[in-house]
Specification:
By secondary structure, the chain is of the alpha/beta class. Helices cover 40% and strands 24% of the residues.
Amino acid sequence: MSSHATSPHAPVLGQLLLDKGWMFACAESCTGGLLAVAMTDTPGSSRWFDRGFVTYSNAAKLEQLLVKADTLERFGAVSEETAMEMAAGVLTASQPAHLAISTTGIAGPGGGTPGKPVGMVCFGFAQRTSQGVTTRAVTKIFDGDRSQIRSAAVAFALVTAIDFIEPR
């Protein structure tokens, strides 16, 4: 178990999912599977965790998550638009899932631009409802090195998902 992936928020999210009878799935780019690790570090996670995708390349986002080529061309891989399509694509691929999170960003140390600095992470949140799939996105900029940015992104994703299910 890697210490940087372990999160006190994952068991809380897991219990909320269990209480609602929901399954969870995720799609990760910049976090490279750390969100799935955090979720599955929790004993009993098979009762509420369905699957995770690591779609690091644009081709993987297109093929596995049905992100539109036009979205990637117009907004880039690191964008709220791509994050929302990634999260919605997870729910298409995972019929049992009710909630999906996606992460796409620039963990560094290189790759940043003036408009998209190192530490910028876009998160997509998708929820399956009786009316269909609803999505929303949030962008945050985290400080630190690559490992710190990725860990902070996982923690933020989990806390935001908890607030999504059970607003304070």
